[in-house]
Amino acid sequence: ADQSPAWLDNGSGAAAAPPSLPAADAAAADIAVSDRSAEAPAAAAAASTTAVDESDLSKMILFMRIANMGLAIAMMTCSIITMISLPSPAVWVLAVYATCGSLLICVLETQLKFLRVMVALNFGFLFNAIWRFAFYILMGSISWAFKNLFGRAMGIAFGAVAIFNTYVLCRYPSYRKMREKIAEEEDKRIQAKISGQVRKQAVSSMFGSRKK
Q: Which of 44, 82, 104, 211 is the most buried (most CB within 10 A)?
């Protein structure tokens, strides 16, 4: 009987076993599906975390504005009382500086558009955590130098509010963007109220002129 060469049999056997590509494709597809299923909960969790952070940030901004405004008004009261009491020239000058610094804090927190732009352009350090902390500590040291009970209390209050402001600015890097967003919403509400009042006055004046 004729026998084929051994090398021919080996070659035909090797050619008859193609790689199982469908199995490899199925495994790759399973890996891709599992990756997508793993990424979906992570994306949902990240979105929910971002929403919670924005909600917390808006509350923190409101609380911080109230604290800063209250602190500034109290500091102006303290410095004016100190100036009226006719202290030494050095303490009187410090009281003037404290009044100006308190006015700056009030202007920062009023959120009026033209004042907001002026503060952002000329006093941008108030939006930096380190520089705002230094400014508040300086204001606290000035009030401490008044050497009265009110001044000492204001010094402690400035230290506490400085720590809180620094925490908010460091914890929420998007503080400035959220603050601008809230300010723009307030501007729109104010503009809508002004437009409504103007519209009412125009209508009342028009009907009043017709009656005459």
A: 82
Q: Count Cβ atoms below 10 Å from residue 162 Cβ, excluding itself.
A: 20
Rounded to two decimals, the pTM is: 0.62
Q: In angstroms, rounded to a whole number, what is the distance separating the alpha carbons of residues 104 and 118?
A: 11
Closest CA to 57 of 146, 155, 139, 179: 179
Say what the pLDDT of residue 44 is: 47
Cα distance between residue 138 and residue 129, in whole Å? 14
- Residue 12 burial by Cβ neighbours in a 10 Å radius (0-12, 13-18, 19+): exposed
What's the token pair of residue 114?
């033209």
Query: In this structure, which amino acid lies at residue 35?
Result: D
pLDDT tens per residue, range 34-71: 555 545 454 444 444 455 566 777 788 889 889 999 99
